[in-house]
Design a protein that fits this description.
The chain has 499 residues and is α/β, with parallel strands linked by helices. The chain contains 20 helices and 15 strands. The relative contact order is 0.09.
């Protein structure tokens, strides 16, 4: 009977996945057989090499004990390890799917830890020879003895091919994943208590994707469940929409409210869709007026502008939550935001006690979109919609006039593209500054459009620029680099100052 799955505590940030080496990542049987045959000749004994290499797993001394005198085992192990680098390493190949399995861990920003019964220096030789993307190799541990290393390294998933690998994973409280490449049968591995049996490592990447998505979604719901009630700082984007929907699922619509701060920096086009989605979930929609323009640090528009914006929002929402009897305020910050490195707004929210359930559960932007798709939320593929102030170059004062002009310009660009039958997903008109009668604009659209309908020399490019000029900009040009989220940050000379 398989052991119950481990708890659904968040597995990332800090994801670490462990792998056994022999017959999990590499097919070491030919090399080990060659060394055993040489050893047998040197010792003048007969060793059943084929039988000994059929199901690798136990330490070498246990493999040799039935065939040698007790006092001869230790020296034989030492000699085996001396012979191993020359006789076994060069000809050993990685098993199919090994590189892809390691890459799957990297795709989730995880660490890779190899925990093996093999002599550590020889294990490292294999890893180095094959160029396996590994962070740590720890050898000479077997069975439940692997648990200490797995716990120390924070491994939440351990992949092996032997029943003793299962024992190590279970003793560490990790999810045990078994592959059928080492000779153990599906029935034996299931009986040992493994959680998952894969035919080979080629199946690991899709399994890991699904495992992490399920685990992190469960962690999100578990977190929300203990909160009691929640006010969600709600923009109508993919992140805050998923957080709102999850809170409704767990707590019920009567214990959740959505709050959207209305100000000059929130595009008019974003307001109705956000309100309609929240109401479709049965949630109260609160639209307090925020006054970030009254904060000098916000208007100054230096690299820390977002700090003042988020401070204003949370200073408005925290008392609003108390007024409506809601225990907490939460933002839609996701796990990618936390590690992005330039998020002064996150610091402002944290200083005011805002929760970040998506990030705490380890949900990345891609995972937010996937869960939203499965839950049939219309925001699952909605493009990012940063506030209008993000379009104004740092150092240029943010004013209602500038924001309104940017919004008019973006609307004009969309209208021209729609009239030409050109669909656009991501679009920004950036205010690069200049006097009121000499303001300059840069138009950013999906890079894929630049080599087609918006190739240089096409009349449509000039039509777009003319449309932007008619909204109040003195000059406009189409960026040949295309849309880049956060491109204004590239203009900061010292971004570290604002973290």
């Amino acid at each position: 009977m398989p052991a119950p799955s481990p708890s659904t505590a968040p597995s990332a940030p800090g994801l670490a996945v462990g792998f056994d080496l022999d017959m999990t990542l590499i097919d070491s049987r030919p090399g080990i057989a060659a060394v055993l045959e040489t050893l047998a000749v040197e010792l003048g004994v007969t060793l059943p090499v084929e039988e000994m290499t059929r199901r690798l797993g136990p330490p070498l001394d246990l493999m040799l004990e039935p065939h040698l005198a007790r006092e001869a085992v230790g020296p034989a192990v030492d000699r085996f390890r001396e012979l191993y680098p020359e006789r076994a390493v060069a000809g050993t190949l990685a098993l199919p799917g090994a590189a892809e399995a390691l890459a799957a861990v990297r795709a989730h920003a995880g660490r890779v830890v190899v925990v093996t019964g093999k002599h550590t220096p020889n294990a490292r030789l294999h890893v180095e020879h094959l160029g396996l993307d590994v962070d740590l190799v720890e050898g000479r541990v077997w069975g439940v003895g692997k648990a200490e290393v797995l716990r120390r390294e924070g491994v939440s998933v351990y992949v092996g091919d032997h029943v003793h690998d299962v024992e190590g994973a279970l003793a560490a409280g990790a999810t045990s994943v078994s592959v059928l490449s080492g000779g153990a049968t599906r029935e034996e591995l299931r009986a040992a208590g493994t959680h998952v049996v894969l035919d080979d490592l080629a199946q690991f990447a899709p399994w890991l994707d699904e495992h992490l998505l399920d685990r992190r979604t469960a962690a999100l719901e578990a977190d929300l469940r203990v909160r009691g009630s929640l006010l969600v700082a709600y923009s109508g984007g993919a992140d805050s929409a998923l957080l709102l929907a999850a809170a409704v699922r767990v707590l019920g619509a009567d214990r959740v409210a959505a709050a959207t701060g209305y100000s000059d920096s929130l595009p008019q086009a974003e307001r109705d869709p956000a309100r309609e989605l929240a109401r479709s979930l049965g949630v109260r929609v609160l639209t307090p007026r925020t006054h970030e323009m009254e904060r000098p640090g916000y208007r100054a528009n230096q690299g820390d502008r977002c700090f003042f914006c988020k401070a204003e929002l949370l200073d408005t929402l925290v008392p609003l939550a108390a007024e409506h009897g809601l225990a907490h305020v939460a933002t839609g910050t996701n796990a990618d935001d936390v590690v992005a490195g330039f998020r002064p707004g996150i610091r402002a929210a944290a200083e005011r006690g805002a929760l970040t359930p998506l990030a705490d559960a380890g949900l990345t932007k891609a995972q937010v979109r996937e869960v939203s798709r499965r839950w049939a939320l219309p925001t699952w593929d909605k493009p990012a919609a940063a506030c209008l102030s993000s379009r104004v170059a740092y150092g240029i004062e943010v004013t209602p006039h500038r924001l309104a002009r940017v919004e008019r310009a973006e609307s004009a660009v969309r209208e021209v593209l729609a009239g030409a039958g050109v669909g656009v997903r991501d679009l920004r008109v950036r205010d690069l500054g200049g006097a009121s009668d000499a303001a300059r604009a840069s138009i950013e659209v999906d890079a894929a459009l630049l080599g087609g309908p918006l190739a240089e020399g096409r009349g449509l490019v000039e039509e777009l620029c003319a449309a932007v000029r008619r909204t109040g900009f003195a000059s406009a040009e189409l960026s040949r680099r295309g849309f880049r989220s956060g491109s204004m940050n590239e203009l900061l000379a010292e971004p570290e100052r604002w973290r």
